[in-house]
Amino acid sequence: MTKKPVQFKLNGADKAVFVDDGQNLLDVLRRGIGDLSPKYGCGQGTCGACTVLVDGEPHLSCLVLAETMEGRQISTTGGLARDGGLDPLQDAFMDGFAAQCGFCTPGMLMAAKALLDRNPNPSRDDVIEAISGNICRCTGYEPIINAILDAAQRGSGQRTA
Amino acid sequence: MSVSVKTFDTAAEAAQVLSNDRAARFMGGGTWIMRAVNEGNQSFSSVLLARDPVLRQVQVQGDRVVIGAGVTMAQILGHGELAFLHRAAKSVGGPAIRNMATVGGNLFAWHPYGDLATALLALDATVTLASGNQQQALADLLRDREREPRPVVLSVTLTRPQQGAFRFRKVSRVKPKGISLLTIAANLPQASERISGARIAYGSMADTPVRVPAVEQALEGKTLDEAGIAQAVAAATNGIEPPTDAIASSWYRKEVAPVHLKRLLLEAAS
Ligand SMILES: Cc1cc2nc3c(=O)[nH]c(=O)nc-3n(C[C@H](O)[C@H](O)[C@H](O)COP(=O)(O)OP(=O)(O)OC[C@H]3O[C@@H](n4cnc5c(N)ncnc54)[C@H](O)[C@@H]3O)c2cc1C
Ligand code: FES
Ligand code: FES
């Protein structure tokens, strides 16, 4: 099997890795680089636990062919906390009990981050739409929706990526 | 993960390789292909990519619209001139899927997928194939899409519908994102308030999106009101034998199709 060199930015830092033919981005992030924040739920695009931002837009990293990421900017939950503090989204999730088992949380946070970066004052329907590709089997979604609206109030969207 | 990946500068080069290799698949956004790769699907052993800029272009010249096969649902949603397709593009998956899923891939999506393809079918779209820039009606491509050798679609061409003439409805059990149990697209151009040249397409009602000639004929020359559409609604499932799947039975699909067709046609009247 051939290995191909790929360079991209992960949470602002340069990364150069060798990827296998057919290897997906989630596998490269988790096993190749050791960023365990995006989760493997289904490998089919259905659960959203592996959601990362590619050039600011949400993508399902389990369905992204890693070698197509040359020169792209990738953001994961692992890069959300900065300057010793959590992102307002993470604070709002904690304060609002928006995580139970926590498996969906990294995907939810990245889907929400993409929304708030584009639209700092979303409506409830905007939030529901933004996380419509992310499954949560614990919370019943209400605490997550409320936490994202709360994060918007706290000014999460005003922090730049 | 035993696939090899080859990248070409043009779609035509990829098409050339694909035409000689039954174990190869062309990849658009990869939302289907990568799923198969992750599952260890053995029906193909290589994946072909193309950097061709034509794949990612949208060209609008007057009423003629050419959409590259590599254009994503999100790009359609971001394009003001494609507003008539926004409802259909928005109905595909969630935001992350829409950032990845392409127009070309939707033409080959298996039942019950192909929501955008259903809209394009009702718009009488033609496809341009990458090898030799051959033109083909979308209906013919859908009919023959499993046939070897597999083609690479370069772009889709259509004529912008008359103002207010194009309608789209996807019926699913989960909102806002759900799999289709029935998708209906209707293009209902009118001359002197009479329908002329109606095009109706269903998604999820056959193995591929299909036109519904019985309904189209019943609408010809009619007005868009209860009396005018009665015959069309009565013919809603003539010639249609929908599949049964986890979402709905064939019987259920047949039962609800007339109800949703009627709603769509009367919505068009308002
Ligand atoms: C979670 C999830 C939800 C989904 N929801 C929907 C939905 O609501 N509605 C819907 O319609 N679909 C849905 N899909 C299916 C799929 O994402 C879409 O149909 C999408 O448009 C496929 O495009 P792609 O570019 O990702 O295809 P790919 O995975 O790249 O390819 C799919 C097929 O098309 C062929 N192909 C791709 N591009 C070309 C081309 N240019 N020329 C010739 N052949 C080509 C490939 O060889 C392959 O056989 C969903 C998928 C997932 C995983
Ligand atoms: S692991 Fe990617 S969507 Fe479930
Ligand atoms: S918190 Fe457990 S899946 Fe969402």
How would you state the average pLDDT of chain A, rounded? 95
- Cα radius of gyration of chain A in angstroms: 15 Å
- Distance separating the two termini of chain A: 36 Å
Task: List the helices and strands of chain A in order.
Answer: EEHEEEHHHH
Multimerization status = heterodimer
CATH architectural arrangement of the largest domain in chain B? 2-Layer Sandwich
Encode the helix/strand succession of chain B as letters: EHEHEEEHHHHHEEHEEEEEEEHHH
> Stretches of chain B where pLDDT falls below 50 for ≥5 residues?
none
Number of domains of chain A: 2
Characteristics:
heterodimer; A: 161 residues; Ubiquitin-like (UB roll); 2 domains; 5-stranded mixed beta sheet; 5 helices; B: Uridine Diphospho-n-acetylenolpyruvylglucosamine Reductase, domain 3; Enolase-like, domain 1; binds flavin-adenine dinucleotide
How would you characterize the overall build of this protein?
The complex is a heterodimer of chains A (161) and B (270). Chain A has helices at residues 25-33, 88-95, 105-118, 124-130, 142-153; strands at 3-10, 13-20, 51-54, 57-60, 73-75. Chain A is globular. By secondary structure, chain A is α+β, with helices and mostly antiparallel strands. Chain A has a five-stranded mixed β-sheet with strand order 2-1-5-3-4, with helices on both faces. Chain A is 31% helix and 17% strand. Chain A has two domains: 3-79, Beta-grasp domain (Ubiquitin-like (UB roll)); 88-154, DNA polymerase, domain 1, CATH 1.10.150. Chain A contains five helices and five strands; from the N terminus they run ββαβββαααα. In chain A, helix 2 packs across helix 5 (142-153). The radius of gyration of chain B is 19 Å and the shape is globular. The mean pLDDT of chain B is 96. The termini of chain B are far apart. Chain B contains eleven helices and 14 strands. The longest helix of chain B is centred in the C-terminal third of the chain and has 20 residues, at 250-269. By secondary structure, chain B is α+β, with helices and mostly antiparallel strands. Chain B has helices spanning 11-19, 33-38, 73-77, 86-90, 95-100, 103-107, 115-122, 138-144, 213-219, 226-234, 250-269, and strands at residues 4-8, 24-26, 46-50, 58-61, 64-68, 126-129, 135-137, 153-159, 166-172, 180-187, 190-191, 194-195, 199-203, 210-211. The A-B interface holds A 1-2, 4, 20-24, 43-45, 48, 51, 54, 57-60, 62-65, 67-68, 111, 114, 128-134 and B 1-5, 27, 30-31, 34-35, 37-39, 47, 49, 74, 93-97, 99-100, 176-177. The site of one FE2/S2 (inorganic) cluster (FES) has 12 residues of chain A, from loops.
